[in-house]
Amino acid sequence: MVQKLRVGMKRLLETRINFWDLLGGRMSFDIAIYSRVLCHKRTVLFLMLCLVTIFAADPSGVRDYVPLWFSVFVWPVAFALYLGLYYVGFLLAAAVSRVFAGFRVPTPLIGLVALFPVASLCECVAGVLSSGTYPQGTLSLMFYFLSVQGMETVFYRFIMPGVRHEIEQAKAERHLVVGGEKINLRDLHHIKAHEHHVHLTLSDTRKLIRARLGDLVAQTKPEDGLQPHRSWWVARHQVKTHEHSNGRMTLRLHDDTIVPVARTRVDAVQDWLSSHIDGPI
Fold it and tell me: Which secondary structure element, helix H or strand E, spans residue 96, and what is its range?
């Protein structure tokens, strides 16, 4: 059950979602890449600047009604809550996108749904601390919404594209070091070990290099590929399907290479296929 939930969540995070931004621009990305963009140092710096700007401007005028410590405390907490609810909104959008292919979600709608409970909670707390003197109403919520949408538009238009490109380029240019030579993982199809050497099959050539398969596998990640047998490693993008013959499981690659699966690794291979190969296999 836990494994199924994990696989389901991974597929949800990797579901491509179509969006409209505030100005009607179209964009598409999955939650996995959004999460990586959000954790990038350039994005973190942008978010910190946004937070400092909001605190300095005090658009709600809360500092006139509550102690300073509350003003210092409330903005970071509210910001974190907003981002958390925004993330939940993305998960719901991904679930809808898996059911309705091509569905396009307006980001301002996700922002409004995430902002409303956070703004309402902060206003309630401010009302209590100010002994009911802090004014509350829909006007301030609309002001929050427009302010946040302005910052989000800057993020989607000018911050995210560059950061996303940088992340995807770094991922695309990963290499495997074999015998002092760099092998681009995008070009690598599979590796077969034989005695003290490894046979590397690439997109346009083959190489025989003295090395240990275990040392090469240690340089890879599960999303790069898998080791179904002690003598084999195959790239993720080369796995076409799995087959059974004479009670033994094998993998068929796109170049029609048949790779054996060790009996002791059948369960691990099936879990990997469920997690990393889209669609039925």
Answer: helix 68-99
Answer whether residue 238 shows pLDDT above 70: yes
- In which domain, by residue range, is 80 found? 2-172
Element at 250 (helix H, strand E): strand 248-253
Q: What H or E segment, with its residue span, contains residue 68?
A: helix 68-99
Residues 135 and 15 in one domain: yes
- Could you report the per-residue pLDDT of 163-211, keeping only the tens digit for each? 998 887 776 677 888 888 889 888 999 999 998 999 999 998 999 999 9
User: Could you tell me if 18 and 138 lie in one domain?
Assistant: yes
Q: Which two tokens stand for residue 221?
A: 């990640």
Among 115, 144, 172, where does a domain finish? 172
pLDDT bracket for residue 281 (50, 70, 90): very low
What is the distance, to the nearest Å, from the Cα of residue 176 to the centroid of all Cα atoms in its chain? 23
Q: Let me know how many helices (H) and strands (E) the chain has, helices first.
A: 9, 13
Residue 60 · residue 147 · CB < 8 Å: no
Q: Are residues 33 and 153 in the same domain?
A: yes
Same domain assignment for residues 145 and 30: yes
Q: pTM here? A: 0.64
Query: Domain boundary at 146, 172, 198, which?
Result: 172
* Neighbouring C-alpha atoms within 13 Å toward the C-beta of 99: 5
